UniProtKB/TrEMBL annotation:
It comes from Ignavibacterium album (strain DSM 19864 / JCM 16511 / NBRC 101810 / Mat9-16). GO terms for molecular function: hydrolase activity, hydrolyzing O-glycosyl compounds. The lineage of its organism: Bacteria, Pseudomonadati, Ignavibacteriota, Ignavibacteria, Ignavibacteriales. It holds the Pfam family CBM_48. Belongs to the glycosyl hydrolase 13 family. It comes from the Bacteria. GO terms for biological process: carbohydrate metabolic process. This is Glycogen metabolism protein GlgX. Residues 176-605 form the Glycosyl hydrolase family 13 catalytic domain. Gene3D superfamilies: Glycosidases, Golgi alpha-mannosidase II, Immunoglobulins.
Amino acid sequence: MKKSILIPIILLVSITFTGAKLFISDKSKSSLIESHLSLPERQKISDRYYSDKKLGAFYENGKTFFRLFTPNAEKVSLIIFDKVGDENGKIYEMTRDENAVWETSIEGKSFGKYYNFIVKHKNQNPVLCLDPYAKAVASFNTYFSPRKGIIIEENNYDWGKDEWIRNDWRDLIIYEMHVRDMTEHPSSGVEERGTYKGLVEKGKTGGLSYIKKLGVNAVELLPSQEFANIEIPFKKELRGKLNTWNPYERNHWGYMTAAFFAPESYYSENTRNIKWNAWSGADAKAVTDFKDMVKAFHQEGIAVIMDVVYNHLSEYEFGNLKEIDKEYYFRLNEQGDFIAESGCGNDLRTEAPMLRRLIVESVLYWMKEYHIDGFRFDLGKLIDWETIETIIYEAKKVNPDVVFVCEPWGGGYDPAGFSLRGWDAWNDQIRNGIKGENPFNGLGWIFGQWYGNNNPQRIKSYVNGTLVNDTLGLFQKPHHSVNYLESHDGYTFGDFIRLGTKSVARDEIIKDVDSFVKLTPLQMKLNKLGALFLFTSRGITMIHSGQEFARTKVIPANIDVPDPHKGMIDHNSYEKDNETNYINYRHAEINRDLFEYYKGLIELRKKYYSFRRAKYEDVKFHEVKTNPFAICYEVNYKDEHFFVAMNANPEISQQFSLPKGDWEVLVDQSKAGIKPIKVVKNKIEVEPTSGIVLKRK
């Protein structure tokens, strides 16, 4: 029997922070798994529960339904709030079916209402929990981030003629970027700075206008599912946790997902800083803003790929899957504590059947509801193989061209395993081989050095897509390799080069960032050589935002934060919502020569199939006997015939003999593009730390 009760609810924050008791009469006993069993035995039993019922909150046949899966809860209730800040709500008892799905329904539509589930476990106080299937979320911006789901109407957006951008994976040129960073700096010229709307404002210096000018055909958004913006207090213990590493108390990049079906609400608010102790996202505007953004990118022929985090959950907040059913949804040790191979506090048990279902349904939801063209999976090796295989199988039913990229480490390292399953993977081998692993004692090929086990043969392997055809290769097909030199992690490529050339010390204070960002002649040559290798290699090409002008990440010296590294180059800016991360378009002008070089390489790669479609046997390397840091090769693909030569030796020029005929120079140490710079024959000399691309006339 279901009944609704109107009772006062203790302030949400109080319930979250103090664990205050919320008493509800228990009239329906649940079937609990025997507590005397071992954890593996209990998890094995809970995995037998499975349901195909639609979960979350949704309107159907004149009613609004609410469903939550949890096999271990003793009792679950629904609470509905009329306003986001209400402390009182209407409570509805929920009943559990034989498959551990708790359910209730309300007559009529409840769009715009706010809701939580009240979850009670044996010998524990009840907790207000966010629906893991919530399609929109309101968040209270404070420690532990209390949240409420918002009941919204789905499938009511006018997409017009919009559909997925169906790129051949081989043709992808990906621009990894952060929604807020692309327009938050005043130099972007954007009115709605830092937002989905601002990102696609037309005719501005920054955002979509800039990305279109650069010429890439795909953007990869750093996490944009609702995530934890705030971490715990700095050097003050709260609920047994102590933050000793993050004086900013922020999570800027977004790798702490809170809701797998809802867009990040902060990116719909045109505010310079997050509003503490206040609600954000209460208007659910992010749902429409996100769709408008995708539609605008699609109108320019640019695909939208989302960086998604399904290996762990937001670590510090209270009232999510950890409180809904810790034993079912998380990997735990024998003592019942969270396992954290991710380094993020709590690894999800993706092998649990109903969590696997949630992940798959989340992916499909973003494809169908938001027209998302592809996904990049954070720490993909922490996701079990059956889930990985199910994701791509189900997604390709919806869109056969959907893009799947993963970070092939986390719970091990296996890019080859992802390739065998038809996934792309970040190729850290080309990254480390070409630029190096670190700029202090691990420099790579562009510096005229060998990092680790790299050698001339491995460099040639990278040109071909790091294939299993070579004994050192990883991938079944070239387009399974996502080639990159810079990502959100680590130093920017520009800063790596500044440090690697000892132009600046690691702990040096940078007083004038505008002067510092301007590249020296050597720094420019190194940036261009790395870019040339990247764009002429087979595989998917990815650059990080700002790489095209040698972006620097200097922590502002004048911020009011107890950061001992203020004024220095940063290599891990995940927590800094400030100019460390923002794209400064003045710097793009300062290094405009490099921007134009990248733009030209993008034009070259997009126009000529040789750099995207050539097969292993289409590439013929020429031997360079006296210079191990020089490579040259011919590419013959259909009616295209190219000669590519690069000299990473920092001290000597290298002369290359050319095949017979006249050769148009499309790329040299100064320029890149599709218009001939000059015509040469017989031989050509390549300066130290530079390269060329020639096309048979």
